[in-house]
Specification:
Chains A, B: Keywords: DNA-binding, Nucleus, Transcription, Transcription regulation. Chains A, B: InterPro entries: TF_MADSbox (IPR002100), TF_MADSbox_sf (IPR036879). Chains A, B: It is found in: Nucleus. The structure is a homodimer of 176-residue chains. Chain A is elongated, with a radius of gyration of 32 Å. Chain A starts with 13 loop residues before the first helix and ends with a helix. In chain A, a hairpin with a 6-residue loop joins strand 1 and strand 2. Chain A contains four helices and two strands, in the order αββααα. Chain A is mainly α and 176 residues long. The first copy, chain A, has a two-stranded antiparallel sheet. The first copy, chain A, folds into two domains: 61 residues, SRF-like, CATH 3.40.1810; 89 residues, no CATH class. Chains A and B meet through helix 1, strand 1, helix 2 and helix 3 of A and helix 1, strand 1, helix 2 and helix 3 of B. Chain B binds a DNA duplex (17 and 17 nucleotides) through helix 1.
Chain lengths: 176, 176
DNA sequence: TCCGCTATTGTTAGCTG
DNA sequence: CCAGCTAACAATAGCGG
């Protein structure tokens, strides 16, 4: 642990860094797990290292995402309450004689940044949607192929029983 | 701290729970911060308590979201590699004579669950989009109102200079 | 509810095999 | 690279103001 009152500083040696990361990462996850159990709280963690491929989600991608989803759903409720105050705020700006348009435009910019992120998420959604369709198409394709094969097998059986000599002649002639 | 080898168990007393949560929460955040600095890693954490209103994101909503976004972007790269193998897998199923349709349908179910979540996210997106439009509308409304006020002020000034007695009569009559 | 304290227990950096 | 060790250090549960 870092000394009392001393802020930790960036580790330069990559080997030390790896060891440190492993140990402290395990410790962090343990503490998170403790807290989850002790206080009946949902925790989701995402780890991302810019250069490295050190990517991790705790306790798992799906669970971390679920917990983030729950967080967002809860924070949306709080947001709706804030929205009412927000509207009052905008109304007061409208009523005031001094315009604070810059402020509003900054908010628009902020919202647009959020919008951009959500577009990124939606791109992901479309990708997944496509995947679903592809799998469905493959299932259908398989079903069709199987039906064709079944029918073909049936035909072959019938031919074998009904006209064995005819088939033999065909084979001997060497043409259809 | 929990004893060595002993898993922590759920706290029942709400007061103790609150104290414990506060302390350990602070500790967890400190450890996360340490790790962030020491190993140059991005960490985003989401906390959600089902019943309570104990909602938190670390280091902040925007930063946690950004870091999750980075995580997703990185994991998407890895996903694309997996996708190729995934397609091979599907192809081998198609080529095989025994259908493993159940397997595929389970995957479809899983994908549909993901799709549902993404719809939730998109609902959020639409909400934000609406918000942007509303703010734009308010800005325009303000501009119009201001123009109207300016013109009205101009008119009043002109009237004051041109026909003072007329204005006075209007005021005394108590109507426009 | 929120500090501050402290004995006890847990964590960790550096090192060894 | 990993697992085990340990002195030194940090976290914390319980208690009191």
């Amino acid at each position: 642990m870092t000394k009392m009152g001393v802020r930790p500083s960036r580790i330069v040696d990559p080997r030390k860094k790896k060891v440190l990361l492993d140990k402290r990462f395990a410790s962090l996850c343990k503490k998170a797990k403790d807290l989850t159990i002790l206080c009946d709280i949902e925790i989701g963690m995402f780890f991302f290292t810019p250069g490295d491929q050190n990517i991790f989600a705790w306790p798992s991608l799906t669970q971390a995402t679920d917990r983030m989803k729950n967080y967002l759903a809860s924070s949306d409720k709080q947001r709706q309450i804030k929205m009412v105050r927000h509207e009052d705020f905008l109304q007061s700006i409208l009523n005031a004689k001094e315009g604070k348009i810059n402020q509003l435009e900054q908010m628009v910019d902020k919202k647009e940044m959020e919008y951009n992120f959500n577009q990124l998420v939606e791109a992901r959604r479309r990708f997944d949607e496509l995947e679903v369709r592809e799998i469905r198409a493959l299932i259908n394709l398989f079903a069709v192929k199987r039906t064709q094969l079944d029918e073909r097998a049936k035909q072959l059986n019938e031919n074998e029983i009904d006209s064995n000599d005819y088939n033999n002649r065909e084979e001997n002639d060497g043409h259809l």
